[in-house]
Specification:
Blueprint lengths: L1 E5 L3 H12 L3 E5 L9 H4 L3 E2 L12 H9 L6 E3 L5 H12 L3 H28 L11 E5 L2 H15 L5 E5 H7 L12 E5 L3 E2 L2 H14 L3 E3 L4 E7 L2 E7 L2 E4 L2 E4 L5 H6 L8 E11 L11 E3 L4 E6 L2 E10 L12 H10 L10 E9 L6 E4 L5 E5 L5 H16 L19
Parallel strand pairs: 1-2, 1-13, 2-9, 4-17, 5-15, 13-20
Antiparallel strand pairs: 3-8, 5-7, 6-7, 10-11, 11-12, 14-17, 14-18, 15-16, 16-17, 19-20
Helix pairs in contact: 1-8, 1-11, 5-11
The structure holds flavin-adenine dinucleotide.
């Protein structure tokens, strides 16, 4: 069985790996010159079912409105005459009820938790070192009242099996001395004890090596332009390097999946949400956090990646541009300097903008659409590193005619929801 996977991010490479293990002859088409370079290369590194909350919530429309009025909100909207943004935005707004937010969060949490187990299993079986840190994650709150509200919000995850504990500002430093400086700044934290972190790009690159041993072929600098079809079957993919044919095709090309699916008449509700991310060499290992986390006030996330610290923030709906200005980093740098002043030389960071492939409701799109041999594994939004192994395991189970280990309600191919 010959299968082409389009996209060499963490989702495409994990898909290729599980398919190869099932005996598929797999080719990965990737437009860049290596795997794991796009969103998979710039993320914050959290492997965090504790961070599963859907972005579409009753609070989101107000935040978007404030951002339109110029306030520096965590989720920002730059209005532009883009029919895709309007179509996507209307669906997003429909998901902003408390009931939809609850359902979407639980779908994501289930997938995240399953995925984390599959990641652990895969990494152990293939002896993959990806700078993993398995010491829980801190969700930091700067005010007592916010901490109380945070606990109330977390109750949804806790009551569905997520293990967590309340940690005082004093106790933070006992868990990880790098938080000593944060003592005067934060009121405390919620620690999700099973959350973790790791370097997604390193994982993806190492897994690609294991894939090669299983016979997977990687075609780099190859951009898929158009799918070719006959009836309800896809017959090939036209690229700038020629046409490739196969028995099955998997779309795992993140933010660009809707562009390709549209060439065979399938609309996908995925739109990019830009985030900014910095990587900085650690100057003093004791002053740099080992435990990953999120500052719930500034919504900056961090994780340690070997001798570097990665921090990221912001979700900006402003199209496909990856440009950034120094002022876009100020929230991250301020948070870094406040929480971990001696961890790094904060004037010497490398920075980038990258784009999350967001669905309006939050869960990714996994499975088949209207074509019998075209599969989707895309739209993983702000949690794709956490969800990758589980999503790919689910997709490959579906492709092999097996029932996946988790309920896939809410993850099916959808052009417009309900
Ligand atoms: C700032 C930021 C912070 C984040 N933090 C976290 C976090 O802490 N934890 C977490 O779990 N997730 C996080 N995420 C989300 C996570 O990074 C993504 O969901 C995940 O990387 C998506 O993986 P992917 O393989 O689908 O996409 P990508 O990594 O973007 O890969 C898609 C690949 O497809 C290729 N491609 C696209 N079009 C074509 C084409 N036509 N032909 C050939 N190749 C093509 C691209 O070049 C790319 O390599 C974050 C994302 C961002 C942006």
């Amino acid at each position: 069985m010959k299968t082409i996977v389009i996209g060499g991010g963490v989702v495409g490479v994990t898909t290729a790996y599980y398919l190869a293990r099932e005996g598929h002859e797999v080719t990965v088409l990737e437009k860049l010159n290596d795997v794991g370079q796009d969103a998979s290369g710039g993320n914050a590194g959290l492997i965090a079912p504790g961070h599963s909350f859907a972005w579409a919530s009753p609070a989101a429309p107000k935040m978007l409105l404030k951002s339109l009025m110029g306030e520096a909100t965590a989720i920002r909207l730059k209005l532009r005459p883009d029919p895709r943004l309007i179509w996507w935005g209307l669906q997003f707004l429909r998901e902003c009820t408390s009931e939809r937010a609850r359902i979407n969060t639980l779908i994501k949490m289930q997938l995240c938790a399953y995925s984390q187990k599959e990641l652990d299993k895969l990494a152990a079986e293939e002896s993959i070192d990806y700078h993993q840190v398995q010491r829980g994650a801190f969700y930091l709150y700067r005010e007592e009242r916010e901490l109380e509200l945070g606990m109330a919000k977390m109750e949804l995850l806790r009551s569905h099996g997520m293990e967590m504990e309340l940690v005082s500002a004093e106790e933070l430093a006992q868990h990880d001395p790098a938080f000593t400086s944060a003592k005067g700044i934060v009121a405390g934290a919620i620690r999700c004890t099973t959350d973790a972190s790791g370097n997604c790009e390193k994982f993806t690159k190492t897994l690609a090596e294991r894939c090669r041993k299983l016979g997977v072929e990687f075609r780099f600098n190859t951009t898929a332009k158009r799918l070719l079809k006959s009836g309800n079957r896809v017959t090939g993919v036209e690229t700038d390097q020629g046409t490739f044919v196969a028995d099955n095709f998997v779309l795992a090309n993140g933010i660009y999946s809707p562009h390709l699916s549209r060439t065979v008449g399938q609309r996908l509700p995925i739109y990019p949400a830009k985030g900014y991310s910095i990587t900085v060499p650690i100057a003093d290992p004791k002053a740099a956090p080992t435990v990953p986390g999120v500052d719930e006030k500034t919504l900056v996330a961090w994780s340690r990646m070997g001798d570097h610290l990665r921090m990221s923030s912001t979700a900006e709906f402003s199209g496909y541009s990856r440009t950034w200005k120094h002022s876009d980093l100020s929230n991250i740098l301020r948070t870094g300097r406040e929480l971990f002043p001696n961890a790094a030389n904060w004037d010497e960071v490398s920075a980038r903008a990258c784009l999350r492939p967001m669905t309006p409701d939050g869960p990714p799109i996994i499975g088949r659409g209207k074509h019998e041999n075209l599969y989707y594994n895309t739209g993983h939004g702000h949690m794709g590193w956490t969800m990758a192994c589980g999503s790919s395991r689910v997709l490959v189970d579906l492709m092999m005619g097996r029932r996946p280990a988790i309920d896939t309600t809410g993850m099916h191919v959808r052009s417009i929801r309900r």
